[in-house]
């Protein structure tokens, strides 16, 4: 079947989608957006966390057909999404081609990061990096609805995202840092 | 495989009548796991995400009619006063991502003995609104669970809503697992005091082939509270009563040994949870806030 939906602000189509396929598979294998990670496929690890109509969900547990005509934001679109949210102006969304060509150390100018992404870099919250995209999406959503979260709020919001490297301390530091920076700007 | 996307409840019922083997999918937190792991290959998936009625709830005089697909997150945010036991249980479901998608209707459809909704539904008192093109019936929740992952739905029926009695007294929920988030219950227990009728009701999760009420324990405690005049005296429940209640709860379970825990551990844990939830609810009934002591 064909599934048409909005990914990172741009209308996208996927063809020949199998009816039992997950949104995660469509994003990774059909749209070339491998930022959302595929690990447990049972909603345990949160590494595939995306926003579906604004709500954080595990993309592995959403059937592809369920996203028809709906809006998905992935880690690839997080910087643009955060920028549009901050400026309040609807932007062009994220070019999927550019997202597919993304490199960690580009030759040209560095990719713009969202405040949460920058905080993860600055706090050293990334180790192997596998859980990072899901954590970024979840943390960004937390700060969107709660700009000054307590430690308990942060732990609760990230409780569905497993990290096997860091012991979480630096991840918590990163979210606190992002919140503090947002607070000083406001 | 076919993927059906009814836009309305009527269309959903017609589709289920035409395709009785269709598997309903709303949050996907159970169905998609089975598909991802190739444990299940339905001929037809019936997507209920578009049926807006299923995402609404109505607070009535005596009950809350909770739409089958209302996510746990909404239950926690909006229904903590009317359905305190269910809201407490909802907080323990999976993770934020799972609670944003999973629903009580899905828990009932899957009918896993470990579903977190079941003990509070049993303790509060609830009826499942099962609907087909043939009509609507209300199934008392204790009759809804018919076996491990089996329920009383006919092949052409869908769950429209759950009618849950509004709390008339304190309710509690307790769950044992290896961590605080993302845990399938080793076992769970729900308790509701019903001062209006001077009765108590319970629900046991994950310690029998289906979720069950601890009938003899309820009868014992209801009688003991009456005989000792405790509803009026403002006294605490005597330890001997609490102990016997806890023993009877454990005796009402029929747990098995499995990967999550042994039968003996489950009985032990039920005893502890029954005693604690009785203490918490009774404290609240007496007007004391739940103390900060360790759960």
Automatic annotation (TrEMBL), chain A:
Annotated keywords: 2Fe-2S, Iron, Iron-sulfur, Metal-binding, Oxidoreductase
Domain 2Fe-2S ferredoxin-type: 1-78
Pfam families for the chain: Fer2_2, Fer2_3
Region (Disordered): 83-111
Transmembrane stretches, start-end: none
InterPro entries (UniProt xref): 2Fe-2S-bd (IPR002888), 2Fe-2S-bd_dom_sf (IPR036884), 2Fe-2S_ferredoxin-like_sf (IPR036010), 2Fe-2S_ferredoxin-type (IPR001041), 2Fe2S_fd_BS (IPR006058), Beta-grasp_dom_sf (IPR012675), Diverse_Oxidoreductases (IPR051452), Succ_DH/fum_Rdtase_N (IPR025192)
Leader sequence residues: none
PROSITE patterns the UniProt entry points to: 2FE2S_FER_1, 2FE2S_FER_2
Molecular-function GO terms, alphabetical: 2 iron, 2 sulfur cluster binding; electron transfer activity; metal ion binding; oxidoreductase activity
Keyword Iron-sulfur in annotation: yes
Obligatory cofactor(s): [3Fe-4S] cluster; [2Fe-2S] cluster
Superkingdom of the source species: Bacteria
UniProt feature, compositional bias: Low complexity: 88-99
Similarity comment: family membership: Belongs to the succinate dehydrogenase/fumarate reductase iron-sulfur protein family.
Protein's UniProt name: Carbon-monoxide dehydrogenase small subunit
Species whose genome carries this gene: Actinacidiphila glaucinigra
Lineage per the UniProt record: Bacteria, Bacillati, Actinomycetota, Actinomycetes, Kitasatosporales
UniProtKB/TrEMBL annotation, chain B:
SUPFAM superfamilies according to UniProt: CO dehydrogenase flavoprotein C-terminal domain-like, FAD-binding/transporter-associated domain-like
Protein name as annotated: CO or xanthine dehydrogenase, FAD-binding subunit
InterPro entries the UniProt entry points to: CO_DH_flav_C, CO_DH_flav_C_dom_sf, Diverse_Substr_Oxidored, FAD-bd_PCMH, FAD-bd_PCMH-like_sf, FAD-bd_PCMH_sub1, FAD-bd_PCMH_sub2, Mopterin_DH_FAD-bd
Keyword Aminoacyl-tRNA synthetase applies: no
Entry keyword set: FAD, Flavoprotein, Oxidoreductase
Organism, scientific name: Actinacidiphila glaucinigra
GO molecular function, one term: FAD binding
Ranges of residues in domain FAD-binding PCMH-type: 1-169
């Amino acid at each position: 079947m064909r599934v048409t939906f909005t990914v990172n602000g741009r209308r996208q189509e996927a063809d020949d989608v199998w009816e039992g396929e997950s949104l995660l598979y469509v994003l990774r294998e059909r749209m070339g957006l491998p930022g959302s990670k595929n690990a447990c496929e049972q909603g345990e690890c949160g590494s595939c966390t995306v926003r579906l109509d604004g709500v954080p969900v595990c993309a592995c547990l959403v059937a592809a057909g369920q996203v028809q005509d709906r809006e998905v934001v992935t880690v690839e679109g997080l910087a643009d999404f955060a920028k549009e949210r901050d400026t309040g102006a609807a932007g062009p969304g994220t070019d999927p081609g550019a997202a597919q060509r993304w490199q960690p150390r580009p030759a040209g100018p560095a990719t713009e990061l969202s405040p949460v992404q920058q905080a993860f870099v600055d706090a050293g919250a990334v180790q192997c990096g596998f859980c990072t995209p899901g954590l970024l999406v979840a943390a960004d959503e937390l700060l969107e609805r709660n700009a000054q979260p307590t430690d308990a709020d942060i732990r609760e919001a990230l409780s569905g995202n497993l990290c096997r490297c860091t012991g979480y301390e630096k991840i918590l530091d990163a979210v606190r840092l992002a919140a503090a920076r947002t607070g000083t700007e406001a | 495989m076919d993927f059906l996307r009814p836009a309305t409840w009527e269309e959903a019922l017609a589709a289920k009548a035409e395709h009785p083997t269709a598997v309903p999918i709303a949050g996907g937190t159970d169905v998609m796991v089975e598909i991802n792991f190739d444990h299940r290959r339905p001929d037809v998936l019936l997507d209920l995400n578009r049926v807006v009625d299923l995402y609404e709830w109505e607070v009535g005089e005596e009950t809350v009619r909770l739409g089958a697909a209302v996510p746990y997150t909404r239950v926690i945010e909006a229904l903590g006063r009317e359905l305190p036991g269910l809201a407490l249980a909802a907080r323990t479901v999976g993770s934020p991502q799972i609670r944003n998608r999973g629903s009580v209707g899905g828990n009932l459809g899957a009918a896993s003995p470990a579903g977190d909704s079941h003990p509070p539904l049993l303790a509060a008192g609830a009826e499942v609104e099962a609907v087909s093109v043939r009509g609507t019936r209300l199934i008392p929740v204790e009759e809804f669970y018919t076996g491990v992952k089996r329920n009383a739905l006919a092949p052409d029926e869908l769950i429209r809503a759950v009618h849950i009695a509004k709390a008339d007294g304190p309710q509690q929920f307790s769950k044992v697992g290896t961590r605080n988030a993302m845990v399938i219950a080793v076992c769970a227990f729900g308790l509701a005091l019903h001062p209006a009728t001077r009765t108590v009701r319970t629900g046991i999760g994950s310690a029998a082939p289906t979720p069950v009420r601890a009938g003899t324990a309820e009868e014992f405690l209801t009688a003991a509270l009456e005989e000792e005049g405790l509803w009026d005296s403002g006294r605490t429940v005597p330890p001997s009563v609490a102990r016997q209640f806890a023993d009877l709860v454990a005796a009402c379970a029929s747990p098995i040994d499995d990967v999550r825990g042994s039968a003996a551990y489950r009985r032990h844990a039920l005893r502890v949870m029954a005693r604690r939830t009785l203490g918490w609810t009774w404290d609240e009934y007496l007007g004391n806030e739940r103390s900060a002591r360790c759960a």
